[in-house]
Amino acid sequence: MSLFNAMQISATGMSAERTRMDVASENLANANSTNGPNGAYRRKEVALRAAGGNASFAQTLSNAASAAARAGGGSPSSIGTTIGGVQVAAIVEDKMPNRRVYDPGHPDANAEGYVEMPNVNPVLEMTDLISASRAYEANVTAMQTTKAMLQKTLEMLR
Question: Which residue has the higher pLDDT, 54 or 70?
């Protein structure tokens, strides 16, 4: 794997985690939205999937070793041509049912006095925000480390 591939993989991770943060923020913003085009707001979740090479680590290592052998020692451009990473597969609605709250004075209350409230749990959303933020930070650190390695390589070539 070249260092540029490592940077691209970190970039895909940062993009995916930013999407997770956006969706969690949207869920929090609509935690009390009872009247939308389809009724009460429904919590959304981000589905992620592996991008690029779905090969195992052992298979990727074997492919890189054989590419290096074919190149006569291997140059950085010949090793690791498959770029992995992560991508957003879909943003889906949570299947959990909405809450019913008794509030006969609410404008959206039904004839029995119940209001359908979104299935958003603020504690869960904050946990998701923290998790996405930490994963984003980890990808930034990986990218910074890769950048430092590239700089050291350029210094050695001078």
Answer: 70
